[in-house]
Amino acid sequence: MLDRILRYLSSMIFGWLTMLVLATTGCVISLSSLSTQWSNNLLTDPQLEITDPNLTDGNLETVALSVSRQKKDKSRYFVIKFPRTQSVHKIIIYNQNLLLFKVEYLDPKSEKWKVAHSVRTRNFDRDGRLQSKFVIDRLRLNTKMIRINVNRTVDDRIISKVVVDPDDHVVNVIQRSFAGRYAKFFRVLDPSPAAIREIEAYQLVEKSS
What pTM did the predictor assign? Predict the structure, then answer.
């Protein structure tokens, strides 16, 4: 009697395992047929218009630079224009000195710049070194232009001023007491050139069977 019970349980367990293997295999096949892969780097197109050719020259030893060109706006921009409307799903930035920045794209309907991704934290590793590479995926951009809008770099200086000029970018204000009287100091951004070693862009393509 005990042998029959054991044989019955063994057959049941074997059947369950077989069904599990078949179901798992079916899932793998289904997912494989729907899987995708990345295209070649879109930024190797010779017809691109770029603010600095070092941005997409394929050489991580060269550095692209951008300086603040407006008095009031201290942002620095790296702009890439495609020869035609392009789908972009992933951007890789090989960083040199960026701290705070936004990835933006030109919306084809409104013809205005919109934010696709923001980096708002100070990215350092455990050894205090600046993050050297940003992989920004899950993008769904359809645009002719993308740009990196840099707000802060590690090389920017913050200087203190008692009187600010109309074009100064004030980071914050400090009030201190001296001999019973309050004095106000303005901490003003003194921007340095933003630097990027390389940018790459990719789109998802269907995997060939």
Answer: 0.74
